[in-house]
Amino acid sequence: MNLFELLGRYFSYEFVWFALIVGVLISLCSALFGVVLVLKRFSFIGDGLSHVAFGALAIATVLELTDNMLIVLPVTVICAILLLGMGRNAKIKGDAAIAMLSAGALAVGYLIMSLFSSSGNVAGDVCSTLFGSFAIITLSRAEVILCVVMSVVVIALFVLLYNRIFAVTFDEAFASASGVRTSLYNLLIAVITAVIIVLAMNLVGSLLISALVIFPALSAMRVARTFKGVVITAAVVSTLCALIGILVAILASTPVGPTVVAVDIVAFGLCFAAGKVMKIE
Amino acid sequence: MAQIICNNVSLGYEDRTVCENLNFEINEGDYLCIVGDNGSGKSTLMKALLSFGTVLEGEIVFGDRLTRKDIGYLPQQSEAQKDFPASVREVVLSGCVGGLGRRVFFGRRDRLEADQNMKMMGVYELADKSYRTLSGGQQQRVLLARALCAAKKVLLLDEPVSGLDPSASASLYSLIHHINKHTGVTIIMVTHDIENSLRDASAVLRMSSEPRFFSSVEDYRREFLAGGAE
Question: Whole-prediction pTM value?
Answer without folding.
Answer: 0.86
